[in-house]
Amino acid sequence: MRKIKQWLSLLLSTALLAGLLVIPAAAAGKPYITQVEAGSEFSMAVTSSGDLYGWGYSSLYGKDPVTSPVKLMSGVKSVSLSSAAIQPSFEVKKYDDYGYISYGAQAGNVAVIVKENGDLYTWGDNVCYQLGKGYYEAEQETYEPYFVMGNVTKAVTNDHSCAAVTEDGDLYFWGHNIVYGYGNNATELYEVPTVILTGVKDVELSEYNVVALKEDGSVWMMGGTHYGALARDEGKVGSLVNEMTKVMDGCKDIAAGCGFAMAVKNDGTLYGWGWNAFAALGIHWDKAEYVATPTVVATGVKSVEAGNHNAYFIKNDNSLWVTGDGQYGQRGQGNEMSYYDSVSNTTKAYRYYPEQVDTNVYSVSAGVNYVLYLKNDGTMWGCGRETSWHYNMGRGDVWGSQPPGYGRGAYCLWPVQCGLSYGSYAGMFGPIQEEAELAAGFSDVAADAYYYDAVIWAVEQGIVNGTSATTFSPNQDCTRAQIITMLWRAAGSPQTNTIAVIEDIAPGQYYFDAVTWAAEQGIVEDGVNFRPNDPCTRAMAVEFMWRAAGEQAISIDTGFTDVPVSASYSTAVEWAVNYGITSGTSATTFSPNNICTRAQIVTFLYRAFAK
Question: What is the pTM of this model?
Fold first, then answer.
């Protein structure tokens, strides 16, 4: 394999232009809601047209609550709001002609907005430097969105701090990193956006913790350690950790709630740790006040979201589940939730274990004592606290629920349509259309295709072209000329010193130099017709690659009954299986005569040369 690895330094420097294009499944179809975001007392939503809507009670809107959704901004990709219920007080300096006075103030509302071009804007209060401006602006009468940085893929806030991930994987943090209450108040101020971790793809904030997911699947945290929040047991008081520390590996999604965090492993197992107040971890109240070691909450999970005293997770079957508080209806189970608990010998107001909320769910956002979620049909739903002075469900003056035998309440005890699926907005938006990541702009290479990474690699390295500007034709048969040309390009398109005597190739053909080189290297036989347009079989593919790699002598028992020991490709098959380049078509067959597709060939090359 040494020769194969050496080829990497010889790859073409003039690679074809390639990249990831995000293309809506139906670009010209009906607009749809791409994101819904629940905050403390107000909510927002983003549409496929890039429009940002908001409703509820927030200082961003002024002194009066917005009862129904209003359009706030255009060209928006995503938005984040805080789900922190209680904000600590911070020192604020108010300047005048005589100097300044110092007093305590709580952080006001903040929204972080990522535009379609990757620009990040903060909008709201700056008591804690949370707008990224680097100075106080307390007691403002009005607020204007403030540009912070570009090339942002994800941004979040907890009102007293913000964090953002850039396209390069840098994690920036600004505002206050704090541990507050529980007998230990400590804070570290980041006046301007500062890189605290690299190689990051996702980030979440709770009141007192930063939770980050790196590209390699590892989870990292900083902030307060009280109640096991940092996956370390330092008791109820804990301390402040002012650097990102590793918690666990092998994860694909993260969430942060009030004093607790969660992560979904690659196998779909959901883990939680930290404060178990309101049984947010799905563990009985009297069995664990907090958990310092990540503990299994559920299996078969696709994604997780947390806010305040609740966690919500979507399973692989698209069902939505909840753990945690249910006193305000945010579990969506109605008003008959109390039960006699034999463990504590008391009557509990709601169950401690996970319960299903709904089906066919696309995404979910947890706020303070309420939740909003999108279904795959494009409708927006919610349940939980919805009072006449908050309007956080976006249902106008129709707030709360009306269960049988009860008057209108302050809470939506069951899921109801709301926001951009209610009132004058009902029917305006269509079903959610998944966006497909297309490799190198090819419309026929989907993100979940087994050959996706291989196609990107091969095109970037100039090893293969598409069959058109927008198609790769992955299922098209690969010819002998095509695979030899790919091997030649992988070697750096070297010029040969001699002219091979092969009668069925001629100068001017795109594969002439490649076949000539292959004959010189002993990959194909000199003096024999090459048959460039014949399809390439599995046997041919591994034999060509094995010869190009130096015909390494290897002997393993593959168990393939259709690969004779006397076959010229038998050692090549053993070599390919040994190095994970390909495997059999079954436990006992290799199917040497099966014709290879373009997708299969680039996958073989990728496994051999890029891994």
Answer: 0.69
